[in-house]
């Protein structure tokens, strides 16, 4: 009888613990990825803060949000809505483009993808590693760039497309970004 009672108490405790985890999951089980995908103010904050955090780590001045660049980014993103193609516009702005399959990509993830190219950049030789692109990263940290404007859309096929425009543009041949 004591073994049965102990077993029942044990099962009751385990059930209560599992139930509490379902009601109050640990922080590691909570997924925040979709929380910002449709709030324009949060998207702008993620884009600007992501860029400026990277720049601050290199003692570079912060970028300022610019509505003209934002309008241009929205216009270009809408031109690509039908195909989500990674094709650059024909402007004198610097431009980074991100494409992600599906609609659950955040603006932060786009910035992180560009920032990840830092590992392909060699400051000493001012070049990208062979067969690697680092120009999204170098545009983000171009010292003389002062303004940023971006747009994030969902393409017709449901994929995510992010365009950021930079003024003045970076990636000037023969110059270092910082």
Automatic annotation (TrEMBL):
Stated name of the protein: Uncharacterized protein
Species assigned in the record: Vaccinium darrowii
Lineage: Eukaryota, Viridiplantae, Streptophyta, Embryophyta, Tracheophyta
């Amino acid at each position: 009888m004591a073994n049965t009672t102990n077993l029942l108490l044990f099962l009751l405790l385990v059930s209560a613990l599992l139930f509490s985890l379902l009601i109050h999951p640990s922080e590691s089980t909570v997924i925040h990825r979709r929380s910002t995908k449709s709030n324009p103010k949060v998207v702008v904050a993620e884009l600007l803060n992501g860029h400026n955090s990277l720049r601050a780590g290199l003692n570079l001045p912060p970028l300022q949000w610019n509505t003209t660049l934002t309008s241009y980014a929205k216009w270009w993103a809408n031109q690509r809505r039908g195909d989500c193609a990674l094709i650059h516009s024909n402007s004198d702005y610097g431009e980074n483009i991100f494409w992600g399959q599906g609609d659950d990509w955040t603006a932060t993830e786009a910035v992180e993808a560009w920032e990840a190219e830092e590992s392909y950049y060699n400051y000493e030789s001012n070049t990208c590693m062979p067969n690697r692109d680092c120009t999204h990263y170098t545009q983000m940290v171009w010292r003389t760039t002062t303004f940023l404007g971006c747009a994030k859309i969902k393409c017709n096929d449901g994929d995510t497309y992010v365009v950021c425009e930079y003024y003045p543009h970076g990636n000037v041949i023969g110059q270092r970004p910082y």
